[in-house]
Amino acid sequence: MILTCPSCDTRYSVDGSKFPAAGRTVRCAKCGHSWHQGPEAPAEPVAEAVPEEASPAPVAAADAAEAEAQASSEARGLDPFPTSPTRAFAPTSVAAEPPAPLGPKLAVVAGWAGLILVVLLIAVSAVRYRQDIAVIWPQSAGVYSSLGLHVNASGIDFRQVDYRRETEDGQVVLAVSGMIVNAGSRQLPVPQTVRVTLSDVSNHELYHWTFKPTATVLGPGQKVPFVTRLSSPPAAARHLEVRFAKDGS
Question: pLDDT digits over 208-222, tens only?
Answer without folding.
Answer: 999 999 999 999 889
